Amino acid sequence: MLDLYSFRIFAASKRIVVRLDKPSDRCAPPRAAAVARLSPSPSFGSPTMDELTAFSIAFDTALGEAALAPDMLTVEVSSAGAEREVRPRDLARFVGFPMRVTYRRGAEGGEEATEVLRLLSVGAAGETEWALADVKANRAHLKKGQPLSKKAKERRVALAAEALRKAHLHVDA
Questions:
Q1: How far apart are the first and last CA of the chain?
Q2: Residue finishing a domain among 51, 79, 107
């Protein structure tokens, strides 16, 4: 089943942009991701090309039936994207994945910080626990090929639901 991730209309350019998500898919853990890429039907929580095509055809048909002249509009249908924003309700789907996280440090009014962290757990009240992700962005200050220190790997960040500002999936390039 597909969910609407975002829907935007650009009137000036007569363009409609639809982003879809597939929350029914269970995301593969990051380490299994490399193996899953080799299989014909990996399950990463994104719609397949066939699903996107079927939605696009149905959407164009609905526009035609509503007499909105679909040939005069540009409709772009795609998945939510590899580095999409992860909404609070979807955090549990992405446990184990690295994310670029912006959060508020300390008590109310604390400064904001942005780090690439790996989600460890999500509690019932929305509280989350994170660890520093072992990605290039976090090793930039190290010599080439040098791993994160044990201290860095063991560091944990516990965030209350209200401290989390935004989180985007991180693709390590």
A1: 30
A2: 79
Query: Which domain does 51 fall in, by range?
Result: 3-79
pLDDT of residue 40: 37
Using CA atoms, how far apart are residues 169 and 21, in angstroms rounded to an integer? 14
35 and 94 share a domain?
A: no
Same domain assignment for residues 102 and 58: no
Query: In the block, which residue shows the tokens 């002249």?
Result: 69
| Number of neighbouring beta carbons within 10 Å of residue 98 | 23
Are both 15 and 72 inside the same structural domain?
A: yes
Say yes or no: 58 and 119 in one domain: no
DSSP 47: -
Q: Where are the alpha helices (DSSP H) in 6-140?
A: 30-36, 49-65, 136-139
| Count of Cβ atoms closer than 10 Å to residue 141 Cβ | 6
**What are the residue ranges of helices labelled H in 12-145?**
30-36, 49-65, 136-139
Q: Judge whether residue 113 has pLDDT over 60.
A: yes
Residues 100 and 65 in one domain: no
pLDDT digits (tens, 9 = 90+) for 16-52: 999 998 887 655 555 544 433 333 334 456 888 999 9
